Amino acid sequence: MVQSGIDPNALDHEPDPDPYLDWVFTAFRRLSTCRSMGMAAGHIPWTAITAYAASCGIEDEDEVDDFVDLIIAMDGEYLKPKDHKGGN
């Protein structure tokens, strides 16, 4: 049965995330608590991302830059306006 316009089987064919990337999703989830909230959610601050990288032992400048770029890209996707089908 479909309720609220959401098909419960819609995720049946979604690919499973690579287990190697679990730490990235954990980092993003934890860093999301650092975003400012007002009329809308704000971006995750660069300072929070670099502090998290340091707490994880990421010290190489290139690796820190890659981590920052990855989290910023994920954050950008997270903050994109959502397409609500059947809405106003």
Describe the structure.
The chain has helices spanning 22-31, 46-55, 61-79. By secondary structure, the chain is mainly α. It has a domain at 41-80. 6% of the residues are buried. The model has no long low-confidence stretch (mean pLDDT 83).
Number of strands: 0
Radius of gyration: 16 Å
Basic shape: globular
- Can you give the mean pLDDT? 83
Catalogue the unreliable spans. Answer: none
> Oligomeric state of the chains?
single chain
Structural class: mainly alpha
Please write the string of helix (H) and strand (E) elements: HHH
Distance between the termini: 23 Å
Largest sheet properties: none
Helix content: 40-55%
Number of helices: 3
Q: How much beta, percentage-wise?
A: under 5%
